[in-house]
Amino acid sequence: MTKAQQLKHLLNNDEVTYALEAHHAASALIVEKTGFKMIWASGLTLSAALGHRDCNELSWTNLCDQFEYMADATNIPILVDGDTGFGNFNNVRMLVRKLGKCGVAGVCLEDKIFPKTNSFLPYNQSLSSIEEFVGKIQAAKDSQTTPDFCVVARTEAFISGQGLEEALKRAYAYQEAGADAILVHSKKSTIEEIESFCKCWNGSAPLVIVPTKYASTPSDTYQKLGISVVLWANHLFRASLIAMRDIAGRIFREQSVHGIDSQIASLNDIFELVDENELKRAEQKYFPLNLNV
Ligand code: SPV
Ligand code: MG
Question: What single-letter DSSP state applies at residue 13?
């Protein structure tokens, strides 16, 4: 199966799939090696890892380099956070064509206004018109370079303070426009908005959620609500911040790395992550004369 076919399968099978966030090739590799079947390339954490805010300070061309490194390093599908498509329908077309070439399996587009604001900030959460966003989904589907590339349409209706009716209206319009799945987002600390949406949803498109704020929800709830994919959207980046701050502080205070050496990854761990042994095996096959001693 191609990566796009894998993603389509994960969206459409009966089980809940958990996708974990990655923000560069190393974190993407860790997601895969841990056993996850899918990677979320988060706009928030990719931006932050490059020192930027989650409001389209980086262009899609900046980010495609990162996506390509992540896709080259891994064998499981990557769903890219495409924000609002980095502009209008034309930017969406260019993005989708390029993502296919980068080895990305799908893109998630959200119905806010460019430049977007992270959903958990208390300002600038206005929605685009349904008509404009439908045009973006159609443009994305018409531009995909592989038949199974997945376009996930994300409604920010709840995030912008609108109710269930608006969320459902938008989701049906996006499904009609050709979206392969619907992501419905909520910033509530309980699953109540998502639950009400799922219970009313009569569409055929699978549902995707991001339980960052309602993280205390028991995981069996997702299956019961018929959710297809759960995105753990930022947790590796948050984990790495704590670990890096802790170790940086200790090295600074102790003016030595001796005390922390056993608490960080070994050099061998790095060599294993990037499969140093494979190069040794390849050398024996292709470069047997040991010319580079
Ligand atoms: C992201 O990870 O960038 C997302 C999810 O879009 S959220 O931060 O919840 O908006
Ligand atoms: Mg995002």
Answer: S
Radius of gyration of the chain (CA): 21
151 pocket-lining for ligand 1 (C-beta < 6 Å):
no
Interval 169-228: pLDDT, tens: 999 999 999 999 999 999 999 999 999 999 999 999 999 999 999 999 999 999 999 999
The full DSSP string for 134-195 is HHHHHHHHHH-SSTT-EEEEEE-TTTTT--HHHHHHHHHHHHHTT-SEEEE----SSSHHHH
Is the Cβ atom of 43 under 6 angstroms away from ligand 1? yes
**Residue 21, CA distances (Å) to 25, 51, 147, 183, 253 in order:** 11, 17, 25, 16, 32
Question: 204 to each of 2, 82, 175, 198, 208, how far by Cα in Å?
Answer: 23, 23, 8, 12, 13
118 CA distance to ligand 1 middle (Å): 7
Cα 44 to averaged position of ligand 2 atoms, centre (Å)? 5
What's the whole-model pTM score? 0.97
Instruction: Please give the Cα distance from 57 to 51 (Å, whole number).
Output: 10
User: Which of ligand 1's atoms lies nearest the C-alpha of 159?
Assistant: 10
- Ligand 2 (ion): which residues have CB within 5 A? 43, 81
Structure-block tokens of residue 252: 């600074």
C-alpha 175: how far from chain center: 20
**Residues making up the chain, counted from first to last:** 293
Q: Mind telling me the catalytic residues? A: 54
Q: How far apart are the first and last CA of the chain?
A: 41
Please give the distance, rounded to the nearest whole angstrom, from the Cα atom of residue 202 to the centre of ligand 2.
Answer: 26
